[in-house]
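Field reference: sequence -> structure
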Amino acid sequence: MTIWRLGDQQPPEPQRITDTVVMRSVPGAVAKGGAEALRAIALPDRGLGVAVRVEDGAFRAVDPAAADVLLQLLGEIDEPALEAIRRPPLLNASEEIVGELVSDVRLVNRST
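Structure field:
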């Protein structure tokens, strides 16, 4: 595992940033991104775990969806960094904000 520090030449992969943001924003959380737009999050203290995967494998949608699932499981989380992942801006070719990516995940109880 490579540790990135401010001032290094190459920034970390976006999924590593998201894993870190989730773990810093939610006490006790463990997060790991994987191939084909997968994000797994465990909350061992609460006995919860969830895996979010985007069907078409596009990474840009997995983080908003995972943040949306966390908010549905835990309620509001007052953490600006997590909110930035939940609703990332969409940029045009001129790097101007033209919208935002919004998740529409609805959890259902399938345990019955």
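Note: Residues 68 and 86 are 6 Å apart (CA to CA).
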